[in-house]
């Protein structure tokens, strides 16, 4: 039976039993290479003829497991052939992964190598773990951050995109205690991801959003992102939320935005500066249930700061669109809509906002909700809102008669 070339010692051309690696990266049978160095006093690599200064050898455990699996698959009983075949495939892929990772430093065909690596780690969690153990994360990082220095080089840009495609399939947690792997905390990685969000291909942007979504589900410190390139990232996420690439990408972008805006008031100011309020109000009418809830949540977060309220009131469709979602999406969406109107009316709303709330039915819907709901802090705030603005709303014929009592309560 023919022995695979990679399993043969380059010196004896026989199947290796104890493969070891020397400083040039070539693997030999231990007894053969030691004889070459110490018996024949040679100072070169037999396969490459490179000069060798370090004569130490390192056991090639991965190749040894592969050889053993190959032997078992060809000399085992028929009953065990199926399980042995799977083991052989796994061992072969592990060996292939080692070779590919080593070649990334020197090969000019990084894109093709990264694609092969992605195919291997997609096989399962064992392959992903092996990739991390072999130092794959650091190799990916070095490829990704090259875009910061030579972003105009097309091949560097493509390699960065492919590396992010590999990175999205890897776990972000380093230990069982849930700590985030150090590589995801490096500012250079985040800067590179922002560049891909802004200029990358459709697939690369999807990969980047997938990584950010994993971070959003962890205890990641989003303030660090804002200090690096906050407005740029927010604009890119808003663009992805608006794009019809896929509903999954749009939803993930909104989920990341929620995490960023939840992190601090500073982040909300940056979002308003990036035009988030205008974009979100424009997106709201045609959004499905899940997307609608996320958009309303973000609008509510933005309205919690003064400039957010101003941005909402300046949009001529803001009141109408939010009002249309009450009762028509979900209980969650309705509750968020109530909070938005309470926030808007809590600090000197413009006359146009009060008029729009009456014309678009927000006042009527809020009246219904107030009569239906049980005593709560939200209901108390609604009562205050009606007391403060019922004089203005009562000028309109459509003003609900049930609210007359709040006018008298205000006078008393």
Automatic annotation (TrEMBL):
The protein's role, per its UniProt record: Functions as an E3 ubiquitin ligase.
Protein name: U-box domain-containing protein
Coiled coil regions, renumbered to chain: none
SUPFAM superfamilies tied to this protein: ARM repeat, RING/U-box
Domain (U-box): residue spans on this chain: 2-77
Alphabetical list of InterPro entries matching this protein: ARM-like, ARM-type_fold, ARM_PUB, PUB22/23/24-like, RING-Ubox_PUB, Ubox_domain, Znf_RING/FYVE/PHD
Assigned EC number: 2.3.2.27
UniProt xrefs under CDD domains: RING-Ubox_PUB (cd16664)
Catalyzed reaction equations: S-ubiquitinyl-[E2 ubiquitin-conjugating enzyme]-L-cysteine + [acceptor protein]-L-lysine = [E2 ubiquitin-conjugating enzyme]-L-cysteine + N(6)-ubiquitinyl-[acceptor protein]-L-lysine
Keywords: Transferase, Ubl conjugation pathway
Origin species: Artemisia annua
A Gene Ontology biological process term: protein ubiquitination
Pathway participation: Protein modification; protein ubiquitination
UniProt-recorded Gene Ontology molecular function terms: ubiquitin protein ligase activity
